[in-house]
UniProtKB/TrEMBL annotation:
Residues involved in methylcob(III)alamin binding: E352, G421, D422, V423, H424, D425, S469, T473, A525
Lineage: Bacteria, Pseudomonadati, Verrucomicrobiota, Opitutia, Opitutales
InterPro entries attached to this UniProt entry: Cbl-bd_cap, Cobalamin-bd, Cobalamin-bd_sf, Dihydropteroate_synth-like_sf, Met_Synthase/Corrinoid, Met_synthase_B12-bd, MetH, Meth_synthase_dom
Protein source organism: Horticoccus luteus
EC top class, as a word: transferase
Known catalytic reactions: (6S)-5-methyl-5,6,7,8-tetrahydrofolate + L-homocysteine = (6S)-5,6,7,8-tetrahydrofolate + L-methionine
Protein name as annotated: Methionine synthase
Keyword Signal carried by entry: no
Binding locations of S-adenosyl-L-methionine: D623, R811, Y866, F867
Length: 904
């Protein structure tokens, strides 16, 4: 995978009313759930940005844009990606800008209406802190030729940067992707014109990005999806090579260029690259033949020839080993390795020869997007079993020949660690496996690793790179601490940063300034090999680090600009804008019990008062979507099982996951435990005060909450979780629920068994299933909690409804967007007696151990919803510190990523 390809951004088109009949139908019908489902599917399918267009003659565009943006803002899995506001009406775009959270993109502005209007609109975009898509369109019309595209984009660039000071890094030029193969000869070169214009724009207009709407190119073939998808894939391949940074496409329907049928690929390229005059006719003829063949095969339903499937066993042993590695087949690897060992003079030669040859193929296929992560991990399992068989022979050789022996020279040595206080390591484990597959020596220090151990190991092992991972917010500060210590101790190694809580922006703004030799954020396992390869190359490293530094400089400037352009409300003003409820009329459910209920799946006699449940019962509540995300297979479950690109591998992964789950259940490998409780309470300002009894005789504990301070339109509120609890002065008593659940007991031991057998694939699978069972436990307990409160007894919700949160109430977790302070967990754990009842304990960073654990609160207000607190100001930090009895510095340390200022 090239650097350009790995940084390419997909703009999901299915939330564009002109790009999706399904979205258009849902929007016109006012079916907001369906609209949100389409947006969610685009994100799950890999969209980095959502293109939102609601232009339709019979729809109020302004009101619809605002309504949908507000709904998206309440969906954490959707609003985590930027929104591209797309409309031909400026009034719709401006309404969208007024209620958009975070940095958005306006699509689009152009010189069509003259320079004055162009600059007026650009000035407003600049004021809102958004980026702008600039069309290659001027007073004379749309640019079609290469020269006109470059001329208009250059003129626009000069006006925006020189007259307005518009940051070049916030400009996205769209040089117009026009339809080819229309039968009109002048149109035949449109794709070539786009590719050449893109290259010139990137060369001559520093800092800008280039985008386009890919579906336009194949409009002549509408109704013929196989041809259109092949054309889109081929167009992106050539476009990215020319410098295309992003494109509007259907995120769930992207193919791999090399996997297009070779004949179809050549014909598509003939059309796109204008290589022959009869290209269109030839492509149509071939497409019709393919469709006829596909229909015939579908009607025949022929099974796969099992004899042919095993034909590889007749190949020479070296070829069999390579095949086994690429296909992840470990059935015969030990006997094949032994046969191969007897052919070579030394066992080391087996590793350096056929095994590394096979792994190089695996690395190339994965890098090119032709293999998926589960396949790579299976290949690593085969490799490890082969090496394990050879190791005793190599050890014996060492004893006989002191000067000889050893395994193949590694390309580099990398120390990986999950930082102190954090217990999550699935992502890190996957990165380690991918690096090992590419012949890097990986020293994985595990989880909760203190800074001193990381640095000492790096020195002792003469590491070439250090990689840090973390999932929870406090880990970000620990990463900064490690970077500072590396700088203080004179390290010069590159530092890699990764994990779910990390981001390129945080790495650039907080970590990189603390360590000059180089901090690189790595998005996921598919990127890591390219990054490490560049950092360990004497020729590539200087340019790579220079480019990385330049990107981080732009990110720091962008961060500063966003902060200055989007001032926060004062805390007092934000509190005035809280939602107001008629508490006299609000339904406040009374739980069946106060205090605690404990649940367990453990075999044998349970402690008195503990309620038993089975893992089979728990498995019914599994949400399988995140299971595939853990393996970097993106898409909406179960649709991804039939996806043309990932469907086959996803189906195989799903079957293997369910098989291992059945083994876990049958052998009772994991023990799941839970505790939930209810307490009388009231809100006191932004805090929730819990009482020992319904008479409110004594305060039992207090939970401290944070309030949104971002500026919003007049009809939107600044939320705080305490808003959903009856205020003490309302005269009503309310109730708060809490829970802690785990499915983690037994997970690490089970995974360790697989690792001891050189089976990282099953070890990672065991951990991923533990996480899924923990989330299933949270879902099951919430269902019980709603029943305990009465209103849940009349629920008639299917599993898909539960996953879409169709129920009443919310269950936010400390450390997550609605309540980002992890230090509220100790209070919750004390109330639940969680460590004694479930075996979960908190680390010094308030991470839960075992890792497959979840905790949080139950808010039952009928209008309660999820939200993100966002950035908070110094006034709220001071107020929060006073309420919690902590110093401002302590609060700042825990809430660092949420601060809208730099702590002193």
């Amino acid at each position: 995978m090239s650097t350009a390809a790995s940084s390419f951004l997909v703009i999901g088109e299915r939330t564009n009313i002109t790009g999706s009949p399904k979205f258009s139908k849902a929007l016109k019908a006012g079916d907001w759930d369906a609209c949100l489902a389409i947006a969610r599917q685009q994100v799950e399918s890999g969209a980095n940005i959502l293109d939102l267009n609601v232009d339709e003659a019979l729809i109020d565009g302004e009101a619809t844009m605002v309504k949908f943006l507000n709904l998206i803002a309440a969906e954490p899995e959707i609003c985590r990606v930027p929104i591209m506001l797309d409309s031909s009406k400026w009034s719709v775009l401006e309404k969208g800008l007024q209620c958009l959270q975070g940095k958005g993109i306006v699509n689009s502005i152009s010189l069509k209406d003259g320079e004055a209007e162009f600059l007026r609109r650009a000035q407003l975009i600049l004021r809102y802190g958004a980026a702008a898509v600039v069309m290659a369109f001027d007073e004379k019309g749309q640019a079609a030729s290469r020269d006109d595209k470059v001329r208009i984009c250059t003129r626009s660039y000069q006006l925006l940067t020189e007259k307005l000071g518009f940051p070049a890094t916030d400009l996205i030029f769209d040089p117009n992707i026009l339809t080819v193969a229309t039968g009109i000869e002048e149109h035949n070169n449109y794709a070539v014109d786009f590719f050449e214009a893109t290259a010139l724009i990137k060369q001559t207009l520093p800092g800008v990005k280039v985008s386009g709407g890919v579906s336009n190119v194949s409009f002549s073939f509408r109704g013929n999806n196989p041809v259109r998808e092949a054309m889109h894939t081929a167009f992106l391949y050539h476009g990215i090579r020319a410098g295309l940074d992003m494109a509007i496409v259907n995120a769930g329907m992207l193919g791999v260029y090399d996997e297009i049928d070779p004949a179809l690929r050549e014909l598509a390229d003939d059309v796109l690259l204008n290589r022959r005059p009869d290209a269109t006719e030839r492509l149509i003829t071939h497409a019709e033949a393919l469709k006829a063949a596909a229909d015939a095969a579908k009607a025949g339903g022929q099974p796969v020839d099992q004899v042919a499937a095993q034909a590889w066993r007749e190949l020479p042993v070296e070829a069999r080993m390579s095949h086994a590695l690429v296909k992840g087949i470990d059935t015969f690897i030990v006997e094949d390795t032994e046969e191969c060992r007897q052919k070579f003079a030394r066992p080391l030669e087996v590793i350096e020869g056929p095994l590394m040859d096979g792994m190089r193929v695996v690395g190339d296929l994965f890098g090119a997007g032709k293999m998926f992560l589960p396949q790579v991990v299976k290949s690593a399992r085969v490799m490890k079993k082969a090496v394990a068989h050879l190791t005793p022979f190599m050890e014996e050789e060492k004893r006989r020949h002191i000067a000889a022996g050893g395994i193949a020279q590694a390309q580099g040595r990398i120390v990986l660690a999950t930082v102190k206080g954090d217990v999550h390591d699935i992502g890190k484990s996957i990165v380690g496996v991918v690096l090992a597959c590419n012949n890097y020596e990986v020293i994985d220090l595990g989880v909760m690793v203190p800074c001193e151990k990381i640095l000492a190991t790096a020195r002792e092992q003469k590491a070439d790179i250090i990689g840090l991972s973390g999932l929870i917010t406090p880990s970000l500060d620990e990463m900064v601490h490690v970077a500072k210590e590396m700088n203080r101790e004179g390290f010069t190694l590159p530092l890699l940063i990764g994990g779910a809580t990390t981001s390129p922006a945080h790495s650039a703004v907080k970590v990189a300034p603390a360590y000059a030799p180089g901090v690189v954020h790595v998005l996921d396992a598919s990127r890591v090999v390219n990054v490490v390869s560049a950092l360990l190359s004497e020729t590539q490293k200087p340019a790579f680090l220079a480019d990385n530094f330049a990107k981080q400089e732009r990110q720091r400037a962008d961060f500063a600009a966003r902060r200055s352009r989007k001032p926060l409300l004062s805390l007092a003003r934000a509190r005035e804008r809280r939602p107001i409820f008629d508490w006299a009329q609000t339904d406040i459910p009374v739980p069946e019990f106060l205090g605690l209920r404990v649940f367990s799946s453990a075999a044998g006699e349970l402690p008195p008062g503990t309620h038993r449940f089975s893992l089979e019962e728990l498995a019914e509540f599994i949400d399988w979507g995140p299971f595939f995300s853990a393996w970097e297979i993106h898409g909406r479950f179960p649709d991804l099982l039939t996806d043309e690109v990932v469907g086959a591998e996803a189906t195989k992964l799903f079957a293997e996951g369910k098989a291992l789950l059945q083994r876990i259940i049958a052998e009772q490998r994991y023990t799941a435990k839970a505790v939930l409780g209810f307490w009388p309470c009231n809100a006191i300002g932004d805090d929730v005060e819990l009482y020992t009894d319904t008479a409110r005789t004594e305060v039992l504990a207090t939970f401290h909450q944070l309030r949104q301070q971002m500026e919003k339109p007049a009809d939107r509120f600044n939320h705080c979780l305490a808003d959903y609890i009856a205020p003490k002065d309302s005269g009503r008593l309310d109730y708060l629920g809490g829970f802690a659940v785990t499915a983690g007991h037994g997970v690490e031991a089970f995974a360790a068994e697989f690792r001891a057998a050189h089976d990282d694939y099953s070890a990672i699978m065991a951990q991923a299933l533990g996480d899924r069972l923990a989330e299933a436990m949270a879902e099951m307990m919430h269902k019980k909690a709603r029943a305990f409160c009465g209103f849940g007894k009349t629920e008639n919700l299917e599993m898909k409804d539960l996953l879409r949160e169709k129920y009443r109430g919310v269950r936010p977790a400390p450390g997550y967007p609605a309540c980002p302070d992890h230090t509220e967990k100790p209070t919750l754990f004390a109330l639940l007696n969680a460590t004694a009842t479930t075996g979960i304990h908190l680390t010094e960073s308030c991470a839960m151990h075992p890792a497959s654990s979840v905790s949080g609160w139950y808010f039952n207000h009928p209008e309660a919803k999820y939200f993100g607190v966002g950035k908070i100001g110094h006034d709220q930090v001071e107020d929060y510190a006073r309420r919690k009895g902590q110093s401002v510095a302590e609060v700042e340390r825990w809430l660092g990523p949420y601060l809208d200022y730099d702590p002193r």
